[in-house]
Sequence to fold (302 residues):
Amino acid sequence: MQLDTITELLNIPNYKATHMVKNSETCMEFVLARIKDISPMCSGCGRIHNTPIHSLGSITVEDLPISGKRVFLHVPVRKLPCLEDDRIRVEELSWIRGRFTKRFADHVFRLTSITTNKEAGWYLGLDDETVYRIDKSMLEELAYERLSPVPVPRYMSVDEVAWQKWHKYVTNVVDIERHKVIWNHRGRGKATMDRFYHDVGPDNCNKIIGVASDGASGYLSSTREHAHNALIVLDHFHVKKYLNDAVDTIRKEELKRARQENNSEVSQILHCNKRFILMQNKVTTRKRDLLEKLSQLNERIY
Fold:
């Protein structure tokens, strides 16, 4: 196999295949070399440094298959001192993502979009954990591209979602007009919500017209502190829950008092087997009669 043909087939800028080190039934391995010596980019700060090279090394990355065989590339890399933190960093190559080329990672991501990680791994000869990490890194990069800078909403809703056991939460901010999640962060409460308003900026916070929340004190206090022009709206689910909890609390108190006073008529109406009559939106004629009777017997509950 002609190495010039392999170099053209790989089509990696400023790199050529120098020789093949393995060619089996399942995989091929090639050694690459730089064509021109250009200044390396620091993987720590992302800047190009013209400092002396500290040392030389190599990494092995997987590329797209050729003729049904897995392809591995041995790529030379340089180590250099970072001017920001004085640590020794490996140069960053734009076409490599971890132990894979970016185009191979894109290939994995396309597969996981139409099938499971397990099936994609079986097809490519990768283990499930490797496919999961590639898929996660691609999703994180896409999220960063779409959510940085944070889109400024006019109307937004905020709520926490449990993503793991033992009270592990993530806070989601949704743009109501776009019907899209525009920001999220691990944790919940005021400190987490403050991060969102800090990312948006003070000027953009004043452009927020309405914020829907579940009534959590941390979200409300953060919104009042940063979004001065926003109308805070409690979502109807939690409003109904608060109302139902209040009605049920009073029902228990009045039932206990009725039993102490031996008031069987009130006790029968407030018994737990009739509690849902007080909570329902739609009531039948029989239930309406019961509620009207309750209005005469117990004004506090009614």
Remarks:
- The chain has four domains: 1-94, 95-148, 155-234, 238-297.
- The chain is about 40% helix and 25% strand.
- The chain has a mean pLDDT of 87.
